[in-house]
Amino acid sequence: MPFLELFDETLDINSTENYELSIQAGPDGFSFCLLDSIRNKFVLIRSYEPEDNKYFNADKISDLLHNDDFLTRRYKKVSCVMPSSKFTLVPAPLYDPGKKTEYFEFNHNLEEENIVLSDKTSDPDAFILFSVSKPISELVNSIYPGVNIHHHIKILLEHTSLIRKSVNGDYIHAHIERDFFNLIVFDNHILKFCNSFSYRNISDILYYIMNIFKSLSISQEETIYLSGLTEQYDDLSSSLSMYIRKLRYSEPSGDFTFSYVFNDTELHRFINLFNLTNCE
After folding, report:
1. How far is CA 280 from the centre of its chain?
2. Residue 94 CB-density burial (10 A; 0-12 exposed, 13-18 middle, 19+ buried)
3. Using N-to-C axis directions, what is the helix angle for 58-67 and 134-143, rounded to 10°?
4. What residue ranges in the chain does DSSP mark as E strands?
5. Strands 223-228, 246-249: pairing kind
6. What torsion, rounded to 10 degrees, do the Cα atoms 160, 276, 266, 83 define?
7. Does domain 3-82+253-278 have CATH number 3.90.1530.30?
8. What's the pLDDT score for residue 2?
């Protein structure tokens, strides 16, 4: 199982009640990080990925939750993000919580053993309805009662609200997951586009991005911000740079810092996990 672990020498397993635990859980992988709330500093990250392009089921995630020495401790705050390619935005003034499944099924099929959850975002003022694995959701709630489960689009939208304050005109953000990616476009701080696309190869990603650029009349001189499973000089960034001149990797933003052990880590890969601490 591919594994990443970084931790600061000040990490203290007996002081976890002063830490905030952020978890990212789903079939594509499982990771968590710890924020020392006294110093507002991230002091640990652990990440697990399935082998051979397989997926995690609820049993595998249960093993990780029950057997990891830090995940069985008590924390000041626990938050969870569950990435999902299927989501729908509903303007808050029109939202009826009793119809969330109906809203969701207007655009997507609800797969067996999945449930629809809701998440509120303030910019734009809307509810995000998204589907997640019911067994995994129930598992997380059973171990951390009352935990807030967020959709990664909420985290990305809140992140962009901070970053685009210094950007005039278009703000374009592409977030890459294993089997899908999200494209978010703001025009002068107004959300113009937010969607998810499944892909099989880099050509699919390029096709969707360039098609949206054309449809929204976005100049190829604009900057595109990247996060998730991409890195400098990989096939995706090299291919994108042939059409879009300015690529930037969007790093976590908030009232926190990182231990020096994160210095060589591509923080944009875990942007949703780290920014999860900003969510209420």
Report:
1. 15
2. exposed
3. 20
4. 3-7, 19-26, 29-36, 41-48, 77-81, 87-91, 114-121, 126-133, 148-150, 170-176, 180-187, 190-198, 223-228, 246-249, 257-258
5. parallel
6. -90
7. no
8. 60
CATH 3.30.420.260 domain locations along the chain: 163-249
| 264 class by beta-carbon count within 10 Å (0-12 exposed, 13-18 middle, 19+ buried) | exposed
How far apart are alpha carbons 115 and 226 in whole angstroms? 29
pLDDT at position 140 = 96
Tokens of 248: 């930037």
CA 122 – CA 201 distance, rounded (Å): 33
The C-alpha atoms of residue 84 and residue 32 are separated, in whole angstroms, by 17
Amino acid in position 67: N
Domain 87-150 has CATH 3.30.420.250: yes
Structure confidence by residue, pLDDT tens digits, 216-252:
999 999 999 999 999 988 999 999 999 998 999 999 9
**163-249: CATH class:** alpha beta
* Single-letter residue type at 22: S
Among residues 253, 216, 214, 249, the alpha carbon closest in space to that of 233 is found at 249
Three-state DSSP state, 44:
strand
For residue 66 the two structure tokens come to 């029950």
Range(s) of the chain covered by CATH 3.30.420.250: 3-82+253-278, 87-150
∠ CA(55), CA(193), CA(90), 5° rounding?
80
pTM of the predicted protein model: 0.94
3-state DSSP assignment of residue 167: coil
Note the residue count of the chain. Answer: 280
